[in-house]
Input
Amino acid sequence: IKILTIIGARPQIIKAAAISRSIKNKFQTKIKEVIVHTGQHYDANMSEVFFEELQIPKPDYNLNIGSGKHGNQTGKMISGIEEILETEKPNFMVIYGDTNSTLAGAISASKMHVQVVHIEAGLRSFNKSMPEEINRIVSDHVSTYLFPPTQTGVDNLKREGFNLESNPPFTIDNPGIFNLGDVMLDNSLYFSEIAESSNVLEILDLEKNKYVLATIHRNNNTDDKERLKQIFKSLHHISRQENVKIVLPLHPRTLKQRKVLLDESFSKELDENKNLIIIEPVSFLEMIALEKNAKLIITDSGGVQKEAFFFSKPCIILRQETEWVEIVESGAARLCDANFEMIIESYYWFDKNQNIQAANLYGDGTAAEKILQLLLND
Ligand code: UD1
Ligand code: UDP
Output
């Protein structure tokens, strides 16, 4: 069979590594994968670095769409993907997560009667002001195979009217829903040991379990002056007050918005704070090394929240809600919004309550293989 994979944003490139690896190891003679990169992320440290390090085959096509307003960006992607579908005529299109590249893949394939396989289906924040929430809902409702990574995802789909007991043959009107685990766990387990050889801690002069790792990129945090200020104020405060190093590999969006939205004097203070180590985005192996050895993680990223959990690290989530509710329910993470007091309070709380037990909520690390086997059997 031929599958056409759509990637575009950093987390999708990483997720795709699990499927590509499984094809190479187990299904090389049975599955041909054609990879289409929309070009949504294009900086070397947001895209290229992952292909080399995670041994993902180079994309067969790169649409080079780049950044833009939602409609413009998504529209160009749909148009480009449509052309490729006409040439390639795949059996399945695989899409990941909830970005504009996911949505573009879902729309182009479903209208051309190519079966859509949505990996990381069913997740909801119940907040439609998030662009990702719209992307998820639309993608799920035009998919033929939905692979929610959690029971919560399955429950959300049931609530939206999906039939969990549907029988083959699966179609867009009779989709199949299967929780086979999370491909991100596959990756974290697989690369965890390999990441031991990273020297990122030495380069940044960090001591194991003595520093905090942070990431910020959600649009409602980066594009809102007050929220962005509250978040930076919190990081500034913790790092100075507690004399703890905070490493912040900064997403290009946040780098840009920081310059525009933060006062010059506050920005200067941040630059002068030697404990706040603001660096460019790091590679996945470096990120895993940083996550595994951090004492605590502060983030608004979906992927980083989960990796914190996989590595039993407490996590302060810079959002009001999360799609990964089971992590919060387990006590391993706290929703702190962009609220200075809540962030600080949770920092001290986790300082005293470091005992996070990673429960088995995301499968057993073989999600990619199970997904591919299921597609082959049908
Ligand atoms: C996108 C996804 C988001 C995901 C995130 C992962 C959408 C709507 N959002 O958000 O769900 O969590 O990726 O990182 O699809 N930029 C660069 N270089 C790059 C890429 C982006 O400078 O290589 C800058 C540009 O100024 C661009 C901005 O970042 O305008 C935002 O990029 P975009 O891809 O639109 O959204 P993200 O915020 O990255
Ligand atoms: N990541 C990375 N380098 C970084 C920041 C994040 O490799 O500098 C990885 C991280 O380990 C996770 C994924 O990128 O696997 C998460 O992507 P991101 O935070 O951009 O998006 P989200 O998961 O929120 O959609």
